[in-house]
Amino acid sequence: MQLHSGKSLTTIIALSLLVQTTVGNYINFADSLRSERSNEDMYDSVFDGANLIADYPSTLPSTKFEKNKEWMNVTMSEGLYLLMRGQSNELKCEASGKPAPEIYWIRGAEIQIQINKLRHITRTCYSCNRQEPDMAKVESKYIINCVSDTDAGPIHCVAISGRFIEIKSAIIKIEGPLLREGSCNIPQSPIITKFRPTLLSVQGSTIILPCDTWGNPRPQTFWQIRGDTGTTDLESNPRIKLLKDGGLLIKSLEWNDLGEYVCIANSSLGEDRAMTFVYPLKSSIQ
Question: Which residues are in coiled coils (predicted)?
């Protein structure tokens, strides 16, 4: 199992896509990154001024950026889903925010009790208890495999970020006879069901890059770091650890950890990939 090291131009271009700026001084942000790609102080001064990623809520003032302001933005296609018995489908929910949000899927009775338990779990996360919490985006898919009558009813995407909690809901309605006999036991190619497209975290912190997977047979998970020079074994870096659930843990985040981390879910039926862009920020606490 290997991580490919190095910083490619692709990394710098991806970074430019992370930042949404409306102040005149940052109009030429992308060009500055390309010409000063090795200047760490310049990177951090831009983020200190803008402090934004692509999904920053449009309701914030365009001329003032509050560095420690908490926020969250959640999107999902809500409404009624009409599904045939035996059909497979997926729901997708996305959340961006500071602290880094978490997404959970719930259904059934006692919704408020379930939400209270999730809020308690989220408060124990790495980011939420820091003086300088992470900013991140998370994407999650809920897989409905071989729809049956037990799948009917509401299903809720619950996004939690610090003091914020937001719920998006869909209603599943089942129609028609089973599409075809035996359709519920067929092999399924891998799908990555949760990952973070972007994560901005303070240097020295510990971060976890989630990579939840689904498939039949169960996929194997491994990680790569996109780069154009050399390779390094996962086991050779004591700060990086592959977790049992497929996530990647990075301790004592360093500037050299900047890059595109690619999770690969692989089985005999194929593979699925998801990329997380990690940006190590300088601490503002003296």
Answer: none
Q: What is the 3-state secondary structure (H, E, C) of the chain?
A: CEEECCCCHHHHHHHHHHCCCCCHHHCCHHHHHHHCCCCHHHHHHHHHHHCCCCCCCCCCCCCCCCCCCCEEEEEECCEEEEEECCCCEEEEEEEEEECCCEEEEECCCCHHHHHHHHHHHHCCCCCCCCCCCCEEEEEEEEEECCCCHHHCEEEEEEEEECCEEEEEEEEEEEECCCCCCCHHHCCEEEEEEEEEEEEEEECCCCEEECCEEEEECCCEEEEEECCCCCEEEHHHCCCEEECCCCCEEECCCCHHHCEEEEEEEEECCEEEEEEEEEEEECCCCC
Is this structure's pTM higher than 0.85? no
Which CATH number does 69-185 carry? 2.60.40.10
Domain residue extents for the chain: 69-185
* Confidence class for position 25, pLDDT limits 50, 70, 90: very low
217: cis peptide before it, omega within 30°? yes
pLDDT for res 130: 59
Cα separations in angstroms, 283 against 111, 136, 277, 286: 38, 17, 19, 8
pLDDT, tens only, 147-194: 989 999 999 999 999 889 999 999 999 988 876 655 677 889 999 999
**How confident is the model over 109-155, as pLDDT tens digits?**
788 888 888 877 765 454 444 567 789 999 999 999 889 899 999 99
